[in-house]
TrEMBL record:
Its EC number is 2.2.1.6. Residues 501-546 form the Thiamine pyrophosphate enzyme TPP-binding domain. It comes from Ophiocordyceps australis. Pathway: Amino-acid biosynthesis; L-isoleucine biosynthesis; L-isoleucine from 2-oxobutanoate: step 1/4; Amino-acid biosynthesis; L-valine biosynthesis; L-valine from pyruvate: step 1/4. Binds 1 Mg(2+) ion per subunit. Binds 1 thiamine pyrophosphate per subunit. NCBIfam families: acolac_lg. GO terms for biological process: isoleucine biosynthetic process; L-valine biosynthetic process. This is Acetolactate synthase. Keywords: Amino-acid biosynthesis, Branched-chain amino acid biosynthesis, Magnesium, Metal-binding, Thiamine pyrophosphate, Transferase.
Length: 620
């Protein structure tokens, strides 16, 4: 088939041949071919005209013919992304904005120590009647006080410190809070932005230093972003697994004055958006299949056990839902050190604490269980010991498709980090327990009679109270002291908050005090920070002013002189601070001395001279 050039293409070819490649080409050379094309088009149109339908002009819309006056009130287009502006901060300093943001977040107490770089904030809050400021003697003490406050109340602890050494002194509490999932918000002063990087007096790269021990940190470089950064700090510290955050405040930001309005949505505490709620709903639907598989494993289990960590305590309604699950399916419950109080230890299904210094019967139950239900625990090395030898019963059941380890955890990184989970349910523990409970089949203690008979046998063979008792004229055993304290507070466990340091006394307290209510055990678990106990107790007392018998902080010093350190006279040291104090060395004086301590109307100290060589047993 041969292709012929049309007359139009020939004309275009002629045009290309005659056109000069310059701006001065003759007009005729360009227009002549166009005249030919145009004339031919007119001929074609004329020929087709008799057969074409008559054209009808469309009628204009009424709006087109409207009078000019009716169009004089046209509204301008509005950007749907543009938010309302908040003018309430105009004319306020950064310190005054900080004060207002604390009120918006319902902060009642702030812990901290003043310094030059943070003075604009202190100036703004100095005479505030809206919250109390608790002054320690050291920034580390402020951090641990805020931790104790957060543990006892469930609200984030807020710390305010200065730049340089003031900020570096808060690093240990930050790491402690990160290890134990404690919501801690630290605001630290900083040199002016113009001096950053010049090695100015008391300058330190706190953002860089704290990056590894915080969930999130930031330096505020402009006063206009201060409200947004404070909102972000509160949201991040309290969402998911709680933890510490740090906000670095240069002095020119806190001393400067805001001159323009800021968007309202960044000046108010954030609420879940429609998109985030939709994402949560989609995630919930995906969870349902996994939850049903978990329920099937529980329903067919012969020897199940619940391993409850701190996540059950931190999750709103967690302890109540844990009890519902344990009661409905008749499942024994063991807890971690930080999970103590999440399950009533006087319940017949309680196995008490597990792990290296936990009860023998709790560890035996974990080894022989065919299904382990981990609720908010991360399988710490103090719990698992040798991973290869951990939970052989559950591993064997998983291989046969009739059991295994199911892990409810809010932090994705903790899933399959230490042990391989047969089923993993990611998200808030309490929310997912609400999905699980309807799927679990009700079973009575009689249905699991063989399993509970085995556990009862272990409890009789290896009771926690099996230790060498004090003689009539011998030294005091620390275990006895803790047991007597537990008995004296039996009727008021809910209002008894106990804080410990780290060491043997921490384990004796965990083992021999009977824990019945959440958030009543306050200790440093993950990091094991010595010096944590006293400031944490002060913070807990601030959070629960009517708790601990409605009186001041009580201090018990277990003095076994084991380290050979040269210590001061603790009784005289307390008396020098106008604090009543006593020393007890005889076993028959333990109960009266504890009664005296509890009965004192304010802070008091009891020094207990204990046996020097008392090991913490069991130790697996």
């Amino acid at each position: 088939m041969m292709l012929r050039a049309s007359p139009a293409s020939q004309a275009l070819k002629a045009l290309s041949q005659t056109r000069q490649f310059c701006s001065t080409a003759p007009v005729a050379a360009v227009q002549a071919p166009r005249k030919i094309i145009t004339s031919r088009r007119h001929q074609a149109t004329a020929a087709a005209a008799p057969s074409a339908a008559p054209q009808v002009r469309p009628i204009p819309s009424s709006a087109f013919n409207a009078q000019e006056s009716s169009r004089s009130h046209v509204q301008p287009l509005v950007n749907p992304q543009q938010s309302d502006m908040d003018e309430s901060f105009i004319g306020k300093t950064g310190g005054e904005i900080f004060h207002e943001m604390m009120l918006r977040h319902n902060v009642k107490h702030i812990f901290g120590y003043a310094g030059g770089a943070i003075l604009p904030v202190f100036d703004a809050i100095y005479n505030s009647k809206h919250f109390d400021f608790i002054l320690p003697r050291h920034e580390q003490g402020a951090g641990h006080m805020a931790e104790g406050y957060a543990r006892a109340s469930g609200r984030p602890g807020v710390v305010l410190v200065t730049s340089g050494p003031g900020a570096t002194n808060i690093i240990t509490p930050l790491q402690d809070a990160l290890s134990d999932g404690t919501p801690l918000i630290v605001f630290c002063g900083q040199v002016p932005t113009t001096a950053i990087g010049s090695d100015a007096f008391q300058e330190a790269d706190v953002v860089g230093i704290s990056r590894a021990c915080t969930k999130w940190n930031v330096m505020v470089k402009n006063i206009a972003e201060l409200p947004r950064r404070i909102n972000e700090a509160f949201e991040i510290a309290t969402s998911g697994r709680p933890g510490p955050v740090l906000v670095d405040l240069p002095k020119d930001v806190t001393a400067g004055v805001l001159r323009k309005a800021i968007p309202t949505d960044i000046a108010l505490p954030s609420l879940p958006s429609a998109a985030s709620r939709a994402a949560m709903e989609a995630s919930r639907r995906h969870l349902e299949a996994s939850v049903r598989r978990v329920a099937n494993l529980i329903n067919q289990a012969k020897q199940p056990v619940i391993y409850a960590g701190q996540g059950i305590v931190l999750s709103e309604g967690g302890p109540e839902l844990l009890k519902q699950l344990a009661d409905k399916a008749s499942i024994p419950v063991t807890t971690t050190l930080l999970g103590l109080g999440g399950f009533d230890e006087l319940d017949s299904k309680a196995l008490h604490m597990l792990g290296m210094h936990g009860s023998a019967y709790a560890n035996m139950a974990m080894q022989e269980a065919d299904v382990i239900i981990a609720l908010g625990g991360r399988f710490d090395d103090r719990v698992t010991g040798n991973i290869a030898k951990f939970a052989p019963g559950a591993k064997a059941a998983a291989a046969q498709g009739r059991g295994g380890i199911v892990h409810f955890e809010v932090m994705p990184k903790n899933i399959n980090k230490v042990v391989q989970a047969t089923e993993a349910v990611e998200g808030d523990v309490a929310s997912n327990l609400k999905l699980l409970l309807p799927e679990v089949k009700a079973q009575s203690m009689a249905d699991r009679s063989e399993w509970f008979a085995k556990i009862d046998g272990w409890k009789k063979k290896w009771p926690m109270s099996h230790y060498e008792r004090s003689g009539a004229n011998g030294l005091i055993k620390p275990q006895t002291l803790i047991e007597e304290l537990s008995k004296l507070t039996a009727q008021r466990k809910e209002t008894t908050f106990i804080s410990t340091g780290v060491g043997q006394h921490q384990m004796w307290t965990a083992q021999h005090f009977r824990w019945r209510h959440p958030r009543t055990m306050i200790t440093s678990g993950g990091l094991g920070t010595m010096g944590f106990g006293l400031p944490a107790a002060i913070g807990a007392k601030v959070a629960q002013p009517d708790a601990l018998f409605g009186i001041g902080v009580k201090v018990i010093v277990l003095n076994n002189e084991e380290q050979g350190m040269s210590n001061p006279d603790f009784v005289k040291l307390a008396e020098a601070m106008s604090i009543p104090a006593k020393r007890v060395a005889k076993p028959d004086q333990v109960v009266p001395s504890l009664a005296w301590l509890i009965g004192e109307p304010g802070p008091a100290l009891l020094e207990v001279i204990t046996d020097k060589k008392v090991p913490v047993l069991p130790m697996s």
